[in-house]
Amino acid sequence: MSLADACDMPVERHPLVPPRPAPAPETMTALGRMTAMRESVIAAWGQRAYEEDIIQGRFFGRSSFILNTPDAIRHVLVDNYENYTRTPSGIRVLRPVAGDGLLISEGRAWKHQRRTLAPAFTPRAVATLVPHMLAATDEAISKIAASCTEPVDLREAMQRMTLEIAGRTMFSFEMGGHGATLRDFVMEYGARMARPHFLDLLLPLSWPSPQDFSRARFRKRWTAFVGTLMAERRAAGKNQDAPPRDLFDLMVAARDPETGEAFSDEQLGDQVATMILAGHETTATALFWSLYLLSLDPASQEALAAEVAGATVNGAQDIERLKFTRAVVDETMRLYPSVFVIARAAAAPDTIAGLPVRKRDVVLIAPWLLHRHEKLWRDPNAFIPARFMPGGSAPDRFAYMPFGAGARVCIGAHFALVEATLALAKIIGAFRVGLIDREPVIPVGVVTTQPNRSPMFRVTPR
Description:
The protein has 462 residues and is of the alpha+beta class. Helices cover 49% and strands 10% of the residues. The two termini are 15 Å apart.
């Protein structure tokens, strides 16, 4: 079966509609909605949020706006982006792991960090890191093959693989000695630090909430751990005449093109922490959901395998020919965007789509809603990779934004797409994957768009 034949099969005529959380009742009280958000943000939105252009409401005495129109989103993220900053609750949640790094910095500090980091994430720089990605992927495939006579937890396997990729691309060393500790930090953060409490939402940022004291203790231990990794990498040294071999080399050598300023040790630590933690977890989640969808849609899985068959996957240059694989990744990130909501607070009065916005009003741009909005997509809840194949109608830049948009678009977007596409191609090229049980896996919005459970897979060598 050719790829063209596979793409014309029932994938289009009878598209898969994977399970999702039911929309919240429109009559849900504010307290009930907040309680639901503690468990999963995406379960707290009602059906109106998937149908209307703008949802206006109240949030702790301020107006709130959910934006579902590309023009309004463009205004907030591009035309007047300096007027919209992270919310206090967002900063509280992210600061324990990101410090004052690129993820939550604002103003001049953010511009300095963005300019300085940009050269480390160009396509040319990312291409030098691909051998690290492929080596870790091949090792993960070997481990899966060795145990594939038993049920396989592919979510855990993807987390371990992307953690190894993060360690090697950042430091050029294996994460075996540190992987368990790092995974413990990830699990602790997700379970205890990442869920906003009532006082996190109510108190101004200058007033610490009870949860902030726990976050500060976590931050101290996390920073010390990252410092240990950096010290180990520095002890390994670098040949002064050799080109950069990893992200750490690139970030140490980076200079602000306007001021010539390098990162301080503290700033470098915040960038390293952000890239390792955020980078590995979001890509692992995207790969898990890709494998889950392909297990539910054998025709798409075989189409991807046909694309990969008979050719090696050994470099960034292969991305160009892996068109259907990339389409599967794109469609997966539409249905399960890792960043499910972008929350911003207005720093000054503004007008959005004719609606007055006051200082400190909250603006929400939710890729989860946007990517499933009934006015923006045909069969919005269906898995149809063909919609991202070349020759199709490209979605509006502000209707599909798995990595954000505008000046603050994710700096690691190209890195993540290369990693996910190559890894998915190699995994499906090596194995046929299927679910052992048919109990629905429901997405949960906490930190990233996570599964509510880790299903077991049957993995068979091709």
